[in-house]
Design goal:
200 residues, mainly alpha, 8 helices, 74% helix, 0% strand, disordered N terminus
Length: 200
Amino acid sequence: MSETRFPDLECLESQAYETTWEDGLVDLYVGLALVLIGIMWVSQMSVYSTFVAPLLIPLWVVSRKRISEPRIGIVQFGSEHVALEQRKLLGLFMLGVLTLVIGVVWFFVGKPESAIRSIAELNVVAGLPAILLAIPAVVFAISYQMKRFFGYAIVLLISALPVIFYDLHPGWAFIPSGVLCVAIGGQLLYRFVRKYPIDG
């Protein structure tokens, strides 16, 4: 008598979980946020950068409802999984806001003389915002099993180097990683739309 094999529910949930991030929309909007914040900082309009995330997050939600959900449906997870995802998103959001605030305060308000003397002639402070934003990118990569966010974090760190060595405005460090996010997100979205066409 042959043994009945049931599907591995954990494997199915993992595949469904990966599909929810396959559309590249999060990359697009994160990249757009980085580019906009970088441009605003460089243009001496940093005060307006605080409105970028509150404006883009609803757009991301609407985009998922109009582009992703009609193609793959709404993935329903168990209550424990949903609660875990909510805690992850809240933690990442708070971490991102905290690191950005620390970077802004340190660069525009702080700059204690003792810290400046300790780093000699290198303006490490200018590269600090990009370095701090690399932390949420790494946490996101680990929490959501999205290895490409390790790459975004590395680009943020690399982009901070010319800012430090050439004493550039810290906003310039955001733009290369933002452009990369938008490019990869656009490519992923293109593949997603072709892979999951809407019937009819």
